[in-house]
Write a structure and sequence with these properties.
Blueprint (H helix, E strand, L loop, with lengths): L1 H5 L5 H7 L8 H9 L9 H15 L11 H6 L5 H10 L19
């Protein structure tokens, strides 16, 4: 859904309607949402929509991330960006990323 929207297959109105369906709710993104106090989310398309809704309530239309959906959140939680994520969470006065030494190889959503 996300990629079809990014490629301009949908009109702008349609794109805005399907955007919540483009969120995958991967393990790391769900962890980030939990760390940021947005709640507990499970795996699945309905949870992706719920996660999108939680992010949209926090940041409004910026939750579209210019059509990238949850990809920026997924990328920032990769091990190679861990220092950046920890810095962002520190600046936001949020607890440190859980299991800061978590190895991406152990994540089946990588």
């Amino acid at each position: 859904m996300r990629e079809l929207g990014r490629k301009g297959i949908y009109s702008q109105a349609q794109f805005e309607q399907i955007m919540p369906y483009g969120w995958s709710a991967s393990e790391r993104v769900r962890r980030l949402a939990y760390t940021l106090g947005m709640g507990q989310f499970e795996r699945g398309i309905d949870e992706g929509r719920a996660l999108y809704g939680a992010v949209e309530r926090r940041i409004g239309d910026a939750a579209h991330f210019d059509g990238d959906g949850d990809l920026p959140l997924h990328v920032i939680t990769l091990a190679k960006h861990r220092d950046d994520l920890v810095s962002i969470l520190h600046d936001a006065d949020v607890d440190e990323w859980p299991d800061n030494n978590w190895d991406d190889a152990e994540d089946d959503d990588a």
